[in-house]
């Protein structure tokens, strides 16, 4: 009996030692979760920022201390662009993912070192590289970015008087189905819209299927009721087309995703048009069309993990 009792005690001590070792090992690294998404911005001043959400498995780390950061970059296979960190904000919320507790932070970056006017960067499969003063580095996968640097100018021939999006009404992860936009011809003789884009090559605004509206429609409407048929939102060929604008007119323009459907709640618009045979470009600053729910369940399947090991 004593032998069995001694054996149980030894097993308990051994199991406790293993648990302690595992806990100590866990304490030697930090898990960081980011998720891939699409960002598109029209940068008009050096003060503008983009907020990158990131989940850290601890608050007790130099990784979220802005004073510990030496420099930051946006990196792809083609580019390594310097950016500035403006703030790392504690969202003061935590969530559990795969039995691990995470704390949400927002990393606010700006582009004071990239003031090239009228230049567009398309950064696919992009990572945010953070170099620390202690010579450590982490790489966070964040998705794709479209960055246009431009000083907005008032257009002489075209203006926008209304704009909002129609989404698929998914309560967690809504995606845009189309845009309602009111345009006014300022020339008095009419202009021809040749293309509308938001700076993302995988998203197309289908002018051929655009519908002129008599009045504004409810933002919760089924867009197929506007078009009169079931519009295929992904992986179909877009035919080049134009819209002729005279005076004021309101339009619904469906959106087609040339690859995967992704939510995109904020973006600019670039409208290419012709007036008397001369091509022009009307730029509308990026706008927050709707607000995404910031919960981990929304992005399950889109997470990318970075593990920092203390040395």
How would you sum up this structure, described in words?
This protein has 311 residues and is mainly β. It folds into two domains: 29-151, Immunoglobulin-like (Sandwich); 158-288, Immunoglobulin-like (Sandwich), CATH 2.60.40. Helices cover 10% and strands 51% of the residues. The protein is built from two helices and 18 strands. Strands 2-8-7-4-5-6-3-1-18 form a nine-stranded mixed beta sheet, with no helix packed on it. Strands 9, 10, 12, 13 and 15 form a five-stranded antiparallel beta sheet that branches. It is globular, with a radius of gyration of 25 Å.
Summarize the structure.
The protein is mainly beta and 311 residues long. It has two helices and 18 strands.
The whole-angstrom Rg is 25 Å
Query: Could you describe the largest sheet, including whether it forms a barrel?
Result: 9 strands, mixed
**Class by helix and strand content?**
mainly beta
Q: Roughly what fraction of the amino acids lie in strands?
A: over 45%
Q: What's the CATH first level of the largest domain?
A: Mainly Beta
The CATH topology assignment of the largest domain is Immunoglobulin-like
Q: What is the helix/strand order? A: HEEEEEEEEEEEEEHEEEEE
- Note the overall shape: globular
Name the average pLDDT. Answer: 88
């Amino acid at each position: 009996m004593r032998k069995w009792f001694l054996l149980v005690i030894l097993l308990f001590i051994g199991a406790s030692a293993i648990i302690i070792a595992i806990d100590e090992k866990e304490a030697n690294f930090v898990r960081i979760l980011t998720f891939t998404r699409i960002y598109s911005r029209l940068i008009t001043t050096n003060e503008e920022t983009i907020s990158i959400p990131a989940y850290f498995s601890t608050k007790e780390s130099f990784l979220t201390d802005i004073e510990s950061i030496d420099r930051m970059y946006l990196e792809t296979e083609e580019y390594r662009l310097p950016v500035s960190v403006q703030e790392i904000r504690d969202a003061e919320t935590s969530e559990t993912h795969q039995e691990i507790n995470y704390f949400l932070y927002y990393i606010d970056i700006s582009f004071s070192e990239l003031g090239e006017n009228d230049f567009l960067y398309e950064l696919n499969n992009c990572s945010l590289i953070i170099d620390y003063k202690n010579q450590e580095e982490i790489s966070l996968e964040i998705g794709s970015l479209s960055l246009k640097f431009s000083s907005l100018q008032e257009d002489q021939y075209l203006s926008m008087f209304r704009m909002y999006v129609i989404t698929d009404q998914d309560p967690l992860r809504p995606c845009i189905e189309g845009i309602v936009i009111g345009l006014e011809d300022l020339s008095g003789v009419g202009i021809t819209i040749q293309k509308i884009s938001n700076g993302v090559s995988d998203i197309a605004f289908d002018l051929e299927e655009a519908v002129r509206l008599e009045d504004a429609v409810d933002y919760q409407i089924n867009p197929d009721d506007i078009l009169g048929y079931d519009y295929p939102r992904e992986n179909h060929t877009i035919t080049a087309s134009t819209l002729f604008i005279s005076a004021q007119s309101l339009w619904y323009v469906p959106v087609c995703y040339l690859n995967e459907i992704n939510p995109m709640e904020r973006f600019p618009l670039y409208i290419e048009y012709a007036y008397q045979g001369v091509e022009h470009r009307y730029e509308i600053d990026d706008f927050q069309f709707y607000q995404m729910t910031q919960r981990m369940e929304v992005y399950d399947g889109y997470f990318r993990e970075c593990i920092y090991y203390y040395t």
